[in-house]
Predict the structure.
Amino acid sequence: MAGELILIVEDNANNRMLVRDVLQSRGYQTAETETAEDALTLARDARPALILMDIQLPGMNGMDALARLRADASTRDIPVMAVTASAMTHDRHKIMAAGFDAYQSKPLNVREFVEAVRTVLAARDQRS
């Protein structure tokens, strides 16, 4: 369902703008940050429906941020999708094994990306 808040965690301004524009054009609300540290605070405060997490971030990386999100009772149930340039098969397996709910590689295929967002949100709604 459009209108949900999606948190974008991406340090590249162009990638962040693309994701924001794609999501907003489909009716989603967005919040953004460039760092995992800020994402942890935003996730607790804003309770987004979904977090889109880059893996390679300045400071704490996306894998460590996911572990902290899952360890916190207030954020553990928020679905988190990895959106990363780490597209090798072994990278994907490692990312999914860490507990991400979905994976999208960069550069994004917009159609596949939007479908993945919808799928993750629908799965979250079924769990609720």
The chain has a mean pLDDT of 94. The chain has one domain: 5-127.
